[in-house]
Amino acid sequence: MTKGRVAALVVVAILLIDQAIKIWVKTSMTLHESIHVFDWFYITFIENMGMAFGMQLGSKIVLSLFRVVAITALVYYIRSEVKKNAKTGYVICLAMVLAGAIGNLIDSMFYGLIFNESSPFYVSYFVPFGTGYAPFLMGKVVDMFYFPIIETDWPSWIPLIGGDHFVFFSPVFNFADTSISVSVVLLLLFYREEIGKISLSRTIQKEGES
């Protein structure tokens, strides 16, 4: 199997898993409902308008358009790396980043068109295309994985935060976020040389333009 097909297979597999989980959560759980799996792991249904892990950054339409541009650039870069016969592991990591970005973009593009508004009082359901809760590119991203690995209260003697509740790793995220995060860690651990070549080529390009 060629590296290009491997990359395509990775992207398709991650997208299928990501969307299957999101659709199950959205059509089976009410908004903010939480399922206790372990004390350190919950399935918690939330939605957000921003970036990975529920972060907010600028307007929704600008963020969605930025994702489209970034995904297009990443597809082009992966194709060029495949043609250069780059390491298979490097190509797979890039494909994981691409799949994660596409997974969240799908939510923004289509969920507002095909679902009604989620609510704490009822389970969301499919509606006729175009009659959902938001226009194209304005849908909310579905998150569900919550890992409160450490949950406690700060000692009362600590200034300012004494007695406050503390949760170690409080973000709620989805499978697409996980794909991006894992691939970035792998890239930093095993493919720093390839990342360095990207920075070097950009520096050479800038010097040539000047």
Automatic annotation (TrEMBL):
GO terms for molecular function: aspartic-type endopeptidase activity. The keyword Protease applies. InterPro entries: Peptidase_A8. The active site is at 143, 177. The chain crosses the membrane at residues 6-25, 61-78, 90-114, 166-191. Pathway: Protein modification; lipoprotein biosynthesis (signal peptide cleavage). Pfam families: Peptidase_A8 (PF01252). GO terms for cellular component: plasma membrane. It catalyses: Release of signal peptides from bacterial membrane prolipoproteins. Hydrolyzes -Xaa-Yaa-Zaa-|-(S,diacylglyceryl)Cys-, in which Xaa is hydrophobic (preferably Leu), and Yaa (Ala or Ser) and Zaa (Gly or Ala) have small, neutral side chains. GO terms for biological process: proteolysis. Signal peptide: none annotated. Keywords: Aspartyl protease, Cell membrane, Hydrolase, Membrane, Protease, Transmembrane, Transmembrane helix. It is a multi-pass membrane protein. The keyword Cytoplasm does not apply. Its EC number is 3.4.23.36. It is found in: Cell membrane. Belongs to the peptidase A8 family. This protein specifically catalyzes the removal of signal peptides from prolipoproteins. This is Lipoprotein signal peptidase. The gene is lspA.
